[in-house]
């Protein structure tokens, strides 16, 4: 085909947001009103840029969707609304945002299956939180109540503009990719990790101590599972170090495929 992608790894991208008909004005001659998937085009676009073929995964909480994982080489957990706190054994805080419990269950199950089988995973924003909850961790339901508002973690500036720094922990996989010291990131979250899940370690923090990136070290040494609280897919233009995080997922996916480490049926 001349695209250079015929042998490229397949990266599944979870859809973690749904749009109800009452929140989606109908388009003339468009689809009849119904619940729709909402996923920024920046995710598949970034995956393609990193050298893989993006596969959009629909949140169907049905075991019949499991076989798709066997055909994927890696998983990108996208950003989206809050995870319902019942997923980590807590009751909703008054500041909790919109949630989709059935979707949470689907994405958490998918993530656990990926971790168990060694499928490389990268979590972005909510995706980092999904990784932590899948590993048995908990979240702060409303971050300003915990760290105050000296740093605005819900920026109004565009995603292409970093608004706070993070300090990268030496000796982590993130440090290999971003370098140690500080990195500039964007910020579109009001929740963050509270208690770390099993096998999860912190790889970057904001100056107010908010956990901004994690590595999962609970699996075999070759396993690749990391999460970032920022939206790297909006930062890759002109920032090769952010694209490098995605390229690392694609490289790990290719390596896992070549090892025959695809998910067993
Ligand atoms: Mn932040």
Please characterize this protein's 3D structure.
The chain has 265 residues and is an alpha/beta fold. The chain has one domain (10-23, 33-264): Rossmann fold (3-Layer(aba) Sandwich). 26% of the residues lie in helices and 20% in strands. The strands form three sheets. It has a nine-stranded mixed beta sheet, with helices on both faces. Strands 2-3 form a two-stranded antiparallel ribbon. It has a two-stranded antiparallel sheet with strand order 7-10. It is globular. The two termini are 30 Å apart. Bound molecules: manganese (II) ion. The site of manganese (II) ion has 8 residues, from loops.
What is the total tally of β strands? Answer: 13
Q: How many structurally independent domains?
A: 1
Low-confidence stretches: none
Q: Estimate percent helicity.
A: 25-40%
Determine Rg (CA atoms, Å).
Answer: 18 Å
What multimeric state do the chains show?
single chain
The biggest sheet amounts to: 9 strands, mixed
Small-molecule binders here are: manganese (II) ion
**Helix and strand succession?**
EEEHEHEHEHEHEHEEEEEH
CA-based shape: globular
CATH superfamily: Class I glutamine amidotransferase (GATase) domain
Structural class: alpha/beta
CATH class (first level) name: Alpha Beta
Kindly report the average pLDDT value: 93
Name given to the CATH architecture:
3-Layer(aba) Sandwich
Within the largest sheet, what's the order of strands?
A: 4-1-5-6-13-12-11-8-9
- Tally of contiguous helical segments: 7
CATH topology call: Rossmann fold
């Amino acid at each position: 085909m001349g695209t250079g992608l015929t042998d490229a790894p397949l990266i599944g991208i979870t859809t973690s947001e749904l749009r109800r008909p009452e929140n989606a004005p109908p388009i003339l001659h468009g689809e009849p009103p119904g619940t729709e998937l909402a996923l920024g085009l920046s995710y598949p676009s970034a995956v393609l840029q990193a050298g893989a073929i993006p596969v959009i995964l629909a949140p169907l909480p049905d075991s019949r969707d499991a076989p798709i994982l066997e055909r994927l080489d890696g998983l990108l957990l996208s950003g989206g609304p809050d995870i319902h706190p019942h997923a980590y054994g807590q009751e909703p805080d008054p500041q909790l945002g919109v949630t989709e419990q059935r979707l949470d269950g689907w994405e958490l199950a998918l993530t656990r299956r990926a971790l168990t089988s060694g499928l490389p995973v990268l979590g972005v924003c909510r995706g980092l939180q999904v990784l932590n909850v899948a590993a048995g961790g908990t979240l702060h339901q409303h971050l300003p109540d915990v760290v105050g508002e000296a740093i605005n973690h819900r920026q109004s500036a565009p995603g292409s503009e970093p608004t706070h720094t993070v300090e990268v922990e030496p000796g982590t996989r993130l440090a290999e990719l971003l370098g140690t010291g500080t990195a500039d990131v964007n910020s579109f979250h009001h929740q963050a990790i509270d208690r770390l899940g099993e096998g999860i370690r912190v790889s970057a923090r904001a100056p107010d101590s908010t956990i901004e990136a994690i590595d999962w070290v609970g699996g075999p040494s070759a396993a690749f599972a990391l999460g970032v609280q920022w939206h790297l897919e909006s930062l890759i233009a002109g920032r090769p170090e952010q694209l490098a995080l995605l390229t690392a997922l694609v490289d790990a996916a290719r390596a896992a495929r070549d090892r025959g480490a695809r998910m067993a049926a």
